[in-house]
Inverse folding.
């Protein structure tokens, strides 16, 4: 018995007409009829009752039909089942994400996840930059977004992916109608830095830079959140520094009496990069993923 015999049988069983089945099989009715007779002879059962006007399945034919369909479905699925068996297993990888990632950057990470989706399932993992970088170093994270600069670990490779302008977060009523602010105008206010849980090398350096530029007062916020910083600014006790672009999710923490103004005499920018371990990229388990990273983030974003 050949598979073609089963295909011929199923075609006739579906149509219950030898001429119609033959046309669908692109053959003449006579050879189709002979193939069915050959199959009946080999199986030892009559499969169709035939007369001049009608064709119908015998009990043996009705019993064979689901069997034949099952065999043909199995054969027809061999190609895609083999492709699936040979496809590399999909690996879940964790991508570290610090607070306040710009929506354009989040969109890029979504593009990366889609591009590598057949091979990797990319899931985000939140945290502060320094902890995220440590997690990349010890292998808990595949890669991470990080606020630059980070320590110069020779085992890590980093790719700049975004640059964001920063502005002064100030009490709105004190600077009503202003389009910018000078550092000297902020000297009477204390500087409230980022919450300690997310403070990193960049913001520590920014604090030192502000001190050198004459901003000497400080409010320490060891346990405050971003909402807490906004509360202090809203009350007129301090100013802070945050992303200038209104699309930044950091603006979700601003209260009613708070505004973000560009500096007229100071031009800080926050740089964000992607970091990964070199040994996992160059011939390692993440080589395919990092190749996609280089394509998706070929040009850094600006906001």
């Amino acid at each position: 018995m050949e598979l073609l015999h089963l295909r011929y049988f199923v075609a006739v069983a579906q149509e219950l007409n030898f001429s119609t089945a033959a046309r669908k099989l692109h053959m003449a009715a006579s050879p189709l009829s002979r193939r069915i007779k050959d199959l009946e002879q080999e199986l030892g059962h009559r499969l169709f009752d035939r007369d001049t006007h009608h064709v119908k399945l015998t009990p043996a034919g009705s019993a064979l039909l689901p069997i034949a369909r099952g065999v043909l479905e199995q054969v027809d699925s061999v190609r895609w089942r083999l492709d699936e068996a040979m496809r590399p297993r999909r690996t879940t990888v964790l991508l570290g994400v610090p607070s306040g990632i710009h929506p354009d950057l989040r969109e890029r990470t979504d593009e990366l996840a889609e591009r590598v989706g057949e091979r990797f399932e990319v899931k985000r993992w939140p945290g502060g930059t320094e902890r995220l970088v440590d997690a990349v170093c010890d292998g808990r994270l595949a890669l991470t977004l990080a606020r630059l600069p980070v320590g110069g670990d020779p085992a890590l490779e980093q790719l700049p992916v975004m640059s964001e302008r920063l502005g002064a977060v100030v009490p709105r009523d004190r600077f009503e109608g202003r389009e910018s602010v000078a550092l000297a105008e902020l000297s009477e206010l204390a500087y409230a830095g980022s919450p300690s849980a997310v403070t990193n090398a960049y913001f520590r350096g920014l604090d030192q830079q502000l001190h050198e530029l004459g901003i000497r007062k400080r409010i320490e916020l060891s346990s405050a959140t971003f909402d807490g910083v906004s509360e202090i600014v809203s009350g007129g006790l301090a100013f802070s520094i945050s992303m200038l672009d209104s699309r930044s999710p950091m603006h979700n923490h601003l209260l009613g009496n708070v505004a973000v103004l560009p500096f007229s005499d100071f031009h800080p920018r926050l740089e964000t990069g992607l970091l990964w371990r070199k040994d996992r990229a160059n011939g390692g388990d993440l080589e395919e993923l990092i190749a996609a990273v280089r394509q998706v983030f070929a040009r850094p974003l600006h906001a």
About this structure: The chain has eleven helices and twelve strands. The first strand starts at residue 48 and ends at 50. The radius of gyration is 35 Å. The CA atoms of residues 221 and 228 lie 8 Å apart.
